[in-house]
Design brief:
The protein is an alpha+beta fold. It folds into two domains: 89 residues, Phosphorylase Kinase, domain 1 (2-Layer Sandwich), CATH 3.30.200.20; 116 residues, Orthogonal Bundle (Transferase(Phosphotransferase), domain 1). 25% of the residues lie in helices and 26% in strands. A hairpin with a 5-residue loop joins strand 1 and strand 2.
Length: 223
């Protein structure tokens, strides 16, 4: 079955709403909204850059009818250093809170990364995907800009400190022998053939998309 994030029982009325200026997380932390990173409309909500002291966070509005479903994906996965997990939540506002990572693979490949650095990034991203697949979670949106990187400029170039898969909002728990059908999941440029055909999709679909990602850094551009 397709993940419930595809539900269409809420209609986008295109009504503009005022963005919050501060959000209090379930942890008690207070997050100050700095700016909107992405506005997906009233149906899917916004993504914000926020701060708490000197720390930066990403706050993502989640459709209320899918909040618990998506939260369960993160709970099922648990802690993994190669997948960006939840830092906090704001259930009353239906918001997920993540630590901010500035770089992504799609941007970094434009900087002529050494092949050893590219290999490390891809290897760590694959470790994250393997951790998801071990829990029978299919990512469904593998692409270069969903591989986030914490990096610094060292005397000999870019130093990668952390690599994490992100954006699990299309992910689904799909234990065998089940498959996902009935939707075109992920970005069209990175989809597997079966994802274009609306299924059946499963772990091999993620691997196909990851193979496209592996090929793209060699050219420093989209496939």
């Amino acid at each position: 079955m397709a993940p419930s994030s595809l539900s269409t029982d809420v209609k986008d009325t295109n009504v503009q709403k005022a963005h919050p200026t501060e959000i209090k997380g379930q942890s008690g932390r207070q997050y100050k909204i700095e700016r909107v990173l992405q506005d997906k409309g009233s149906l899917l909500g916004c993504v914000f850059l926020a701060t708490d002291g000197n720390e930066k966070f990403v706050l993502k509005e989640i459709p209320r009818n899918n909040y618990e479903f998506r939260l369960e994906i993160y709970r099922r996965l648990g802690s993994c250093p190669y997948v960006r997990g939840l830092e906090d939540t704001a259930p009353n506002e239906s918001i997920f809170i993540f630590r901010y990572l500035k770089e992504n693979l799609l941007g970094l490949v434009q900087k002529n990364l050494p092949i050893s650095t590219t290999k490390r990034i891809l290897k760590d991203a694959l470790r994250g995907l393997a951790a998801m697949h071990d829990k029978d979670i299919v990512h469904n949106d593998i692409k270069a800009n969903n591989i986030l990187i914490e990096a610094t400029e060292g005397p000999h170039g870019i130093v990668v400190e952390r690599t994490q898969l992100t954006d699990l909002e299309d992910s689904a728990h799909c234990p065998p022998p089940g498959n996902l059908i009935g939707a075109q999941l992920g970005n069209w440029m990175w989809r597997s053939h079966e994802a274009h055909a609306e299924g059946p999709m499963n772990k091999p679909s993620d691997i196909f998309a990851f193979a496209i990602v592996v090929g793209s850094p060699e050219h420093g551009s989209l496939p």
